[in-house]
Structure formats: structure tokens, C-alpha cells
Design goal:
Length: 423
């Protein structure tokens, strides 16, 4: 049985109308992924299944410097106590072989005086290695073996002390300690600057000692797939900044706004405001320089994911001049203000420059309208105040006039001749 043909034409039916309606682009929800660089600059990377663990022992000094303080102190304490015990055993064997432990032997022929047990040998070992010298126990010239052990213990003690002092100095003067006072803005912003769509961040230095030869590098890290089908989980793309002149050196005297122009060479060229929120990119910022006081190269890092990039904002001013001195208010370091910015990508702005012109014109008109509203509100408020002041004065005058008016009443008994006046 054939189906009956509908009275309404197919092109005007619900399926036909739905097919002709313009569809908005559908964006996938962004999958929460791990950050490659944390906000404090630490690398979020775990090394697993390292089979050649012996490579770390080939560079013992760097391994000790990279260890945490508690492990370093435990290692050095264990090393000192082990060396004292080792040489205490050596001194006890020397005394035993020479017969110093025999109380019958005369004191003048002892290798080490007053070494009568392992405990006294251990105390003498500590005195020799840390050069305390209490004076109760001492070495004599009667035993060449004791002199040799003394020389060996002094050399080993000096080596342990040198390694320990060098390790402690390097751990206390590490470059990442200086990076604690190099700060980045909590959010990055995208706005129009010099008629171009720009990606901007703010950096600053809390110390008065400057960073010499400071440089800033930006990288975009994202998962990409090559035309051959190869998946690159961490694809690092270098991003150029405006300060590319003179090897990108910065004079980091006051907080600076680092600007990246989103042009056709930028990895952000095809991203609009909506697409940015759904993307999984991560912008890494690396600040490098030489510490002025120590001459050590330092590096500070941070990153911004799509949730931390504010579209249509810019940083507010924080540097003011007060009594001939420039003052920086760090409480406003990360403050941003909302500005009119096209929501389309930089590619669309290049293809249709009228979008930017129309946006700027709308912004100017809205700004003028807001100024007119403010001025009209101020005039209305002033007129209301003036009217209120005039009304209170007229009311006082009217009240005085009413109080001075006289009301006359006729007395009927007097035939209308006499009157009583009441004020």
C-alpha cells in the first residue's frame, strides 16, 4: 500500500526547514589534560622504567645537589660517622698490633697514647678528622703505621668536607631560588593593540637587584598529528614576541607587558574566542637572565592553559609617579580591564578588516554614550540639588507670610460695627 502524499510540500516541512537553517559550528568539550609546566614553574613529567640507574652514580655531585635537603643531610651524616668508625677500627688494629692495649707495656713505646679500647680509638679518630685536639690522646714517633693512618685520615676528611661544603653552597645558591622573586601574571590576555590582535602577559621582578640580559621565550605546546599520521603528544612551537630586536634582551627594571602579535606565522592565528575555550593548547613562558649579585644564570617558568587566557581584556596601569619617584603597586599586578575586542580569529580580521573598524566604531560610540549619560546624570543631580535648596527657601518665606496674615471676625452683637482681629 502506497503512503499518501502530504498536502504540505516537502521543502516547507520540518526536515526541509531544518536542512536549510544555518548551523552554528559545534565544538567538542575540551578534555582536561595534565599541564606540561605548572604555575610555579615545575615540570609535570615523570620518568619511568629507567634501566641504567648507574648513570646517576657517575655524576655523584650533581645527584647530591638535586636531592632534597633531608636526604643530603642523612647521606653526609652517614658518611662522617662511617669514616670515623672505619678509622677508629684502623687505630684500634694499630694499637693491638703494636701492643698498646697491654697494660704492662711502658707508655713511652705507645703508637698512640691513652688508646686502651675501641671507644678511646673512636674518640681519637674524631679528634684527628675534625682537628679538635683535646690533648689527652696523641700520636708518637715510635710507629710508622700510625703516621700513615693519620695522613690517610686527614686526606679523606678534607675530601668529605670539600664535597659537603660545595654541595651545600650549590644547594643554597641554586638559580631557582632567585626565580622565586620573578613573578608572572595569573592570567594572559588577548586584545587589540596597534590595530592587531595580540597575546599579552605581564612579568615583574620583586628585587631591586636586576636580572642582566633578561630574555623571554614563548612556546605553544599542543598535541598534533602530522600529514603522515604520526601523533606528536608534546609538539613545541616557538612564538615570537615584539622585543626581538637586540637578541630579545629586556631591561626588567619595572613590570613589563610581553606582547605577541597574532599574525599568520602564529599558532594562534586560526583560533577565535570560542575555539580557544575548547582547545587543549598550553602557552609556556620562559624568563632567563643572569643574577646581578651572584653572576649565576637563572630561569623562571610558567604556563597558561585556555581557561587562563582572557579574551577581550588588557592589563591595567600599575606604575605611577609620586614625588619624583616611580612607584609600582604590586597589588594591581594581575588586574585586567575589559575592552572591546572582536570575537573572531586573527585570520578573519585579516580577510575582513571592516570587522575591526566596525568594532572600534561601536566602542567609540558606546564610550561617547556613556560619557553623555554621565554628564546628563550629573546635570540632573545638580538641578535636583538646586531645586531642593530653592524649594526649602521658598517654603520658609511662605511660612513666614502665613504667620503674619491677620484674620478678622465680625461680631454679630455689634451689628457688624466692631471686629475682632486674630493674627
Amino acid at each position: 500500500m502506497l503512503a499518501r502524499k502530504s498536502i504540505i510540500p516537502e521543502e516547507f516541512g520540518i526536515p526541509g526547514l531544518a536542512s536549510r537553517m544555518p548551523r552554528k559550528p559545534v565544538f567538542r568539550d575540551r578534555v582536561n589534560k595534565a599541564r606540561f609546566i605548572a604555575k610555579n614553574g615545575s615540570c609535570n613529567l615523570a620518568h619511568k622504567n629507567i634501566r641504567e640507574q648507574g648513570r646517576f652514580l657517575q655524576d655523584v655531585f650533581t645527584t647530591l645537589v638535586d636531592l632534597k635537603w633531608r636526604f643530603t643531610l642523612v647521606i653526609f651524616s652517614t658518611t662522617f660517622v662511617s669514616s670515623w668508625l672505619l678509622f677508629a677500627m684502623s687505630w684500634w688494629l694499630v694499637a693491638f698490633a703494636h701492643g698498646d692495649l697491654d697494660p704492662v707495656r711502658h707508655n713511652g713505646t705507645h703508637c698512640v697514647t691513652d688508646v686502651k679500647s675501641f671507644t678511646s680509638a673512636f674518640l681519637f679518630s674524631i679528634e684527628v678528622q675534625v682537628t679538635i685536639g683535646f690533648g689527652g690522646r696523641m700520636i708518637t714517633e715510635h710507629c710508622l703505621t700510625a703516621i700513615t693512618v693519620l695522613i690517610m685520615q686527614n686526606i679523606v676528611g678534607l675530601i668529605i668536607n670539600a664535597v659537603m661544603l660545595g654541595c651545600i653552597f650549590m644547594k643554597t645558591a641554586q638559580s631557582n631560588r632567585r626565580a622565586e622573586t620573578l613573578i608572572f601574571s595569573r592570567h594572559a590576555v588577548i586584545a587589540v593593540r596597534n590595530n592587531c590582535l595580540c597575546f599579552m602577559i605581564r612579568i615583574g621582578d620583586l628585587r631591586k637587584s636586576m636580572i642582566i640580559g633578561a630574555t623571554v621565550r614563548l612556546q605553544v605546546v599542543r598535541k598534533t598529528t602530522t600529514p603522515e599520521g604520526e601523533v606528536i603528544p608534546i609538539h613545541q612551537i616557538d612564538v615570537q614576541t615584539e622585543t626581538v630586536v637586540a637578541n630579545n634582551n629586556l631591561f626588567l627594571l619595572a613590570p613589563l607587558v610581553i606582547c605577541h602579535v597574532i599574525d599568520k606565522h602564529s599558532p594562534l592565528y586560526d583560533l577565535s574566542a570560542m575555539e580557544l575555550q575548547c582547545s587543549d593548547l598550553e602557552v609556556i613562558v620562559i624568563l632567563e637572565g643572569v643574577v646581578e649579585t651572584t653572576g649565576i644564570t637563572t630561569q623562571a617558568r610558567t604556563s597558561y592553559i585556555s581557561d587562563e587566557i582572557q579574551w577581550g581584556h588588557r592589563f591595567g596601569p600599575i606604575v605611577t609617579e609620586e614625588d619624583g619617584v616611580y612607584s609600582v603597586d604590586y597589588s594591581k599586578f594581575g588586574n585586567t580591564v575589559k575592552v572591546t575586542t572582536p570575537r573572531c580569529s586573527a585570520r578573519e580580521l585579516d580577510e575582513k578588516p571592516s570587522i575591526l573598524i566596525q568594532t572600534l566604531q561601536k566602542s567609540e560610540l558606546s564610550h561617547q554614550n556613556s560619557l553623555r549619560k554621565r554628564n546628563s546624570m550629573r546635570r540632573n543631580n545638580s538641578m535636583r540639588k538646586g531645586a531642593a535648596a530653592g524649594g526649602s527657601g521658598g517654603l520658609r518665606r511662605n511660612n513666614s507670610g502665613i504667620a503674619s496674615t491677620k484674620v478678622q471676625f465680625f461680631s454679630p452683637g455689634d451689628g457688624g460695627q466692631s471686629m475682632n482681629a486674630v493674627t
